[in-house]
UniProtKB/TrEMBL annotation:
The keyword Plastid is annotated on this UniProt entry: yes
Gene expressing this chain: apcF
Protein name, UniProt field: Allophycocyanin beta 18 subunit
The family this protein is said to belong to: Belongs to the phycobiliprotein family.
Residues annotated as binding (2R,3E)-phycocyanobilin: 72, 77, 82
Amino acid sequence: MQDAITNIVNRYDVKGSYLDKFAVDQLSSYFKTGLLRIKVIQLINSKASFIVKEASAQLYSEQPELLRPGGNSYTTRRYAACLRDLEYYLRYASYAIIAGDTNVLNERVLDGLRDTYNSLSVPIAPTVRGIQLLKEVILQELSNENIEAEFFIVEPFSYMCRALSEQNISR
Ligand code: CYC
């Protein structure tokens, strides 16, 4: 797993150079957002089950066919798997927010996931919508607490949506 600091240090180590102004600017913007990152992960941590519940309720009200016979969330086993997956996305997004790096998402969540989903017929588009809804619920909660939304808060969610939506062009 990488974070904003190891990412920069590794790049400079490869070149064998000291951290220049560019690196220092990137590092200071990471440190400047540090307290806000902590606030955001505390909010996610304290409201995790609410966030998942809201996002899934919204998903199933938009796409009720998922819950009907033939839908991928039909049966309590699959419904539970779906809530669990949303919980995974939320938890790993919180790790990426505090790390300031999306690498953890590739390593622990996304690698191979499309293939797993395809082999189990888990539909990608509603999953992507579920991740967007997690993000929207968090943005609403942040605004309720007068915390201004910043790019780094939404980025891990957008990153997972992009990665899941991407077509595999090698096949
Ligand atoms: C299944 N989701 C799975 C499976 C994996 C993941 C590996 C297959 C194994 C299992 O059932 O547990 C996902 N596992 C992960 C992820 C990680 C991991 C992300 C990283 C930590 O270790 N179905 C829907 C919704 C969507 C959904 C749109 C929820 C948003 O209709 C999800 N995922 C879903 C469902 C299954 C599943 C229903 C069970 C499919 C089946 O067995 O038929």
